[in-house]
Amino acid sequence: MRIVFRMAAAMLLGSVLMTTAVFALNLEERRRMVYRELLKELDKDRDGKIGKSEYMAIWKDRDYGEANYVHFDQNKDGFITEEEYIKKTELPARKK
User: What is the extent of the structural domain holding 40?
Assistant: First the structure.
């Protein structure tokens, strides 16, 4: 019985530690992880950035997709880079 309890406790502790590690990431690191996941799915030519045609391929509503794309492509070069994505997904500063 003690061994089962210890195993269960160890599994729970491991789960808590793993969850804590994920939440310990700061918000910018989390946004970078999201961008990299998007990149894996959308970057068909593997150039390290998301081109307009790659981005638009996921949108059924082309107008909404276009507006969303323009929001992220800050320098209007036709690509969404990691830095552009990070900058546009920042939370506004809280008022004190």
Answer: 26-88
